[in-house]
Amino acid sequence: MRLINTDTLIPGLKLGRSLYNENGQILLKDGVELTERMIQRLMELNIPFVYIQERRTEHIKPARAISEDLQREAIKTIVDTFAHIQKEDKNASIVIEKAAKQINELIRHILKEIHGNKELLSLLADVFIHDNYIFTHSLNVTLYSLAIGIEMKLNQKQIETLGMGAILHDVGKMLVPAKILMKPDKLTAEEFAEMKKHSELGFQLLRNAVTVPLVVAHCAYQHHERLDGTGYPRGIKGEDIHLFGRIIAVADVFDAVTSNRVYRKAMLPHEGLEILYAGSATQFEVHIVEAFRRAVAIYPVGLMVELSDGRIGVVSKQNPGLSDRPVIEILEENAQAVEPYEVNLKDRFDLLIVSCDTAISVAAITG
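and the corresponding structure tokens:
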């Protein structure tokens, strides 16, 4: 399979990985031949990348971060909890109290699967579509935060609490006016000021839920704070920000920049990592960004890349702990197709990935 930017798709390509809605129902099944209307719908749904079937890369299959069943369960838990909070505005803390046990169980199930998966974490293969970005974002941030926590060797209790904080970090958005929350265009300065209140709203909700640890409330409160004090809502600095808040901040920003938004296109994972590196030591803690880099697939399986010696290939495997040194299956040398063979960048530090290609070419259909 090959990873393709959605806006470069052309009719006739076959989908490589099924796409699901928030109820776990298949919207487009793997193997379906894409039509102009289907491609337009994918772009309307803000799906940045999809996997397609291609003869040269048909044996390359990206691993899922978690199983389809667990992903379906997780999205349903988040949707049901958040929707109930929105409906029961005055009793939202009670809703969270009742949901806490279910969320804890969900985190344990996710951790079990992540521990059992020896691949670096990649979410590009796991597309669940929902009208509200917050639901899938909450799950993605949870997966990234747990991966960081594991890499940092936090204990089981810490990781479970971090997971709950990550799932609920944006819960305050359920109390932001819907016309702002669901606005299809970029927010005005006044609307953004209103949106920023979600951190404190979430904190108040969670601190009043007796079954939720207070640190979880601080995850909602602090995930937009920055090391240098330029964040919000309080502008606190350094270690005044709880470790979990600092971890979730990294996961939150990475998922935001690698997701399609109204005002900008999604970045590829290695581009998202550059954003984190640019903010290292000023906005984000260096050792957290490094833990993230070791845990998450920066060059996902199925991505076409060019090496520093001019050879072109596709990422076929990951090297645990070395996200920027994957295994590349070479397909072209000197602008000529060759019999595929592997180059493991773990053993070839003289080679670098110099560019990535998520655009489709005629060769993907014909050859």
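(Above: one complete record from the training split.) The CA atoms of residues 191 and 240 lie 28 Å apart.
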